[in-house]
Amino acid sequence: MTKSVLCVDDSASIRQMVSFTLESAGYAPDTAVDGADALTKLDQNKYQLIITDLNMPNLDGIGMIKKVREMPQHAGIPIVMLTTESDEGKKQEGKAAGATGWIVKPFDQTKLVAVVNKLIGA
Length: 122
What we know:
The chain has helices at 12-24, 35-44, 61-69, 88-97, 109-120; strands at residues 4-8, 28-32, 49-52, 79-83, 101-104. It is of the alpha/beta class.
């Protein structure tokens, strides 16, 4: 069974690049335009991993992670932050919210796949 990954980012080009990268690695990517859209998708689908941006309209990445961690059916899902933000304070805030990992944009496609493989296997 192909493992599905939800990519949450307000940038269409990032969503496309992450989806292409994951699809090429054998995963089934899905996308959401912000944290609120992601929560709607989580109500309707099951994912093995979430990759999310930090700064987005409506509901940002940290707010979304906090809400996901409150949902028992998704409590154990790994969540990787993929953002331009490299501030240590923001990283700590993400970790405290429940982020599993943190990758700074622009991202290396090989590194992204390696992280996904490590977290959920190919």
